[in-house]
Amino acid sequence: MLLWQYLITFLLVTVQICKAEKCDEFTDLNLGHSIIGTSLKVRLLLYTRSHGTCGTLVSHTDLSAYPQFNLLNPTTFIIHGYRLTGSPPPWLGDLTQLLLVRKDMNVIVVDWNYGAANLNYLEAVKNTREVASNVTAFIQMLQEQGADLSSIHLIGVSLGAHISGFTGANLKGEIGRISALDPAGPEFKGRNPEDRLDSSDAQFVDVVHTDMDLLGFREPLGHIDYYANGGADQPGCPKTIFSGQSYFKCDHQRSVYLFLDSINATCTSRTYPCSSYKDFLDGKCLTCSQFGDAGCPIFGYDVIKWKDILLEQNQTKAYFKTNGKSPYCMTNYRMDVMIWNKDVQWGYLTVKLHGNGKEAQATINHKSLKFKKFTETELLAAFDKDIQSVEKVSVKFSTGNVLQPKRKLRILQIRLENLEPKENKAQGSLCRYDVLLEENKEVTFRPIPCEESNF
Ligand SMILES: [Ca+2]
Ligand SMILES: [Ca+2]
């Protein structure tokens, strides 16, 4: 063979390989498109374990063209929301990858960027029904080919949560699960269940609220509704408008990053059913006897293990605190403090746990705490890390009042109990008796197991 023949063969093979590895990408638009306004185009991109980073545009008619689509596997749809700037969602790749790592499944990214990118939010809202019709038709095709509706999971972000709701309603609520990540509030507040997401749209609907005071939805919409950090504002997000665009979307987008952490499962966020965030912070909802040995439901992807008991309870509002950045999960303790000062004392507590060369901190300052002689003050102490084996504890008391003389808290008993169910924790309750806390001075001590004390 001559050299040029080799070259041509080489080129042909290269072209073949390139053709085989051609990946379809999520539509990348810019602010210009958004300013002019875009009209709706729905594209469904398939990802599987064998094609984890290379998307394939799929049609609604011929599934056999995509041998990597396995009808016996569950299928998860990712449905994004409004795109102000037209850029692809920054979390999309991570969400797809983490899902595929967790389970062998088909992931379909519903790309409706043409239609979502528009300065006028109302135009994007108008497209939601049509996106849902498109996804519905695809799912009906899957069903005709033999897929089981209960193995279908829709993960909808913001407007995508209501698109998931419409899709689920089109399929008579028979799809397995909808996970709604901060469902959009504007244009959906106060609407009837058929005009928004609700718990009848799937067999199981889990919802997380992270920005209910601005872009999200305040009222519960699913079988379980989580209110992360109360559901309105998130730690680590800018508090002023001077931070630009992130001021508007940080709280809202946090719902996705919390969910990503839960799929990643590096640690778990335990959540507490309660009537209000205030009661939760006050330590009034820290027992979960209604959930038996499983304990309080955890947040996110794996809450499906609580499905049956949550369905029995019809609607659950659950609260949890998170860190300001990933890993978001915190370790919760119940803390009891009893003092013997003559007068009632008011103030805040900072508690640190030390062990294995690590330190975890909980700041209990959501309100001025009331300490009364010989009366247990029960508190929630949420620590930023999990210290499996606590060697030492530090406590600091402050009143925040610099004008008055420094106070002293005469502690008769301090008790810390890890709230994780028994099989998940290394230690039982930790106690310490007779501690004098001078205001703003940290005191460190070695706790002892409570049951071994003679108190
Ligand atoms: Ca609905
Ligand atoms: Ca907010």
UniProtKB/TrEMBL annotation:
Reactions catalysed, as given in the entry: 1-hexadecanoyl-2-(9Z-octadecenoyl)-sn-glycero-3-phosphate + H2O = 2-(9Z-octadecenoyl)-sn-glycero-3-phosphate + hexadecanoate + H(+)
Active site residues of this protein: S158 (nucleophile), D182 (charge relay system), H252 (charge relay system)
Residues holding Ca(2+): R196, D198, D201
Chain ranges of the Lipase domain: 38-328
Keywords: Calcium, Cell membrane, Disulfide bond, Glycoprotein, Hydrolase, Lipid degradation, Lipid metabolism, Membrane, Metal-binding, Secreted, Signal
The UniProt record lists the keyword Cell membrane: yes
Transmembrane regions: none
Record has Phosphoprotein as a keyword: no
GO cellular component: extracellular space; plasma membrane
Cleaved signal peptide residues: 1-20
Pfam families, alphabetized: Lipase
Location in the cell: Cell membrane; Secreted
GO molecular function, one term: phospholipase activity
Topological type in the membrane: Peripheral membrane protein
Gene3D superfamilies: alpha/beta hydrolase (3.40.50.1820)
GO biological process, one term: lipid catabolic process
CDD domains from the UniProt entry: Pancreat_lipase_like
InterPro entries recorded: AB_hydrolase_fold, Lipase, Lipase_LIPH, Lipase_N, TAG_lipase
Function comment: Hydrolyzes specifically phosphatidic acid (PA) to produce 2-acyl lysophosphatidic acid (LPA; a potent bioactive lipid mediator) and fatty acid. Does not hydrolyze other phospholipids, like phosphatidylserine (PS), phosphatidylcholine (PC) and phosphatidylethanolamine (PE) or triacylglycerol (TG).
Protein family per UniProt: Belongs to the AB hydrolase superfamily. Lipase family.
PANTHER family (UniProt xref): LIPASE, LIPASE MEMBER H
Protein name: Lipase domain-containing protein
Taxonomic source organism: Oreochromis aureus (Israeli tilapia)
